[in-house]
Design goal:
single chain; mainly alpha; 8 helices; 2 strands; 68% helix
């Protein structure tokens, strides 16, 4: 009987101010009556201001705005750092919520509520953030869903969920073991042995995998021979349907198996 292990809950419990700078330049044009002397003084002053403005414009066009540009770069960098900080907090919050959902699924699994546990594990997978930070919780939830399906006798679904777990974590031994057990239940002995061999590659001291391979090998050989016989039987039926038109039968042909190679040779007998 296959032994299914469940994952234990993981314990992983963990505003950015914005400064807005406001400023306004205010220019007021007035209208008043003045003497000719006052007007001449005003004109002279206006010309001086015009020349000063032209000088300022020239200074800006020659790169004098570098101080303002540098200030803008600093603010942009600060804004980027704040955005990254907010993103990190959101990822950590989502990861904590995913682990909480997984823990709830584990409790339901222990109570034998496998369908309910499946929903919790699926929810944890959905809310887990993308990326390597959530690879552990996602792979564990896929593997735990596989365990639920195994308990429910849904071995095809078990294989699918284990494969999803291994896509996230290719060296997840428990997921490989569950998939091997599900393959055995479906009499996929070759596939089960392949998974057990993978386990031995990752953990050469795994006695369970070694014993399983020894136990499954004769079953795999027997199934292989049975499949060959079924295939030969179908070929005979097809051959008789064709040869019968010429007054012959497949029985006129004798297949002899080579004990050394396992291959067959065909000879005709009238």
């Amino acid at each position: 009987m296959a032994v299914i292990e469940e994952e234990s809950p993981d314990e992983s419990d963990r505003k950015s101010p914005e400064a807005v700078k406001a400023g306004a330049d205010y220019n007021s044009d007035g209208y008043e009556t003045a003497s000719d002397t006052e007007l001449q003084e005003d004109v002279a002053e206006t010309e001086n201001c015009t020349r000063s403005n032209e000088t300022d414009a020239s200074w800006v066009s020659n790169g004098g705005h570098g101080e303002h540009s540098a200030s803008g770069d600093v603010k942009a960098e600060e804004s980027h750092e704040k955005t990254e900080s907010i993103g990190a907090e959101a990822i950590e919050r989502a990861l904590n919520e995913a682990n909480d959902a997984k823990a709830e699924g584990n409790a339901l699994f222990k109570s034998g509520l496998y369908e309910e546990a499946l929903s919790k594990y699926e929810f944890a997978i959905q809310i887990a953030p993308e990326g390597s930070s959530s690879s552990e919780v996602r792979s564990m939830c896929f593997a735990n869903r596989a365990a639920c399906f195994f308990k429910l006798g849904k071995y095809e679904e078990t294989i699918k969920e284990c494969t999803k777990a291994l896509e996230v974590n290719p060296n997840y031994v428990k997921a490989i073991l569950r998939r091997a057990e599900a393959h055995e239940k479906l009499e996929h002995y070759e596939e089960s042995m392949a998974d057990m061999n993978k386990i031995l590659e990752l953990d050469p001291s795994n006695d369970q995998a070694r014993r399983t391979i020894i136990r499954l090998k004769p079953l795999a050989d027997e199934k292989r021979e049975k499949m060959k016989e079924e295939m030969i039987g179908k070929l005979k039926e097809m051959g008789n349907s064709i040869l019968g038109r010429f007054g012959m039968s497949i029985d006129n042909f004798k297949a002899v198996k080579d004990p050394n190679t396992g291959s067959y040779s065909i000879s005709y007998q009238s």
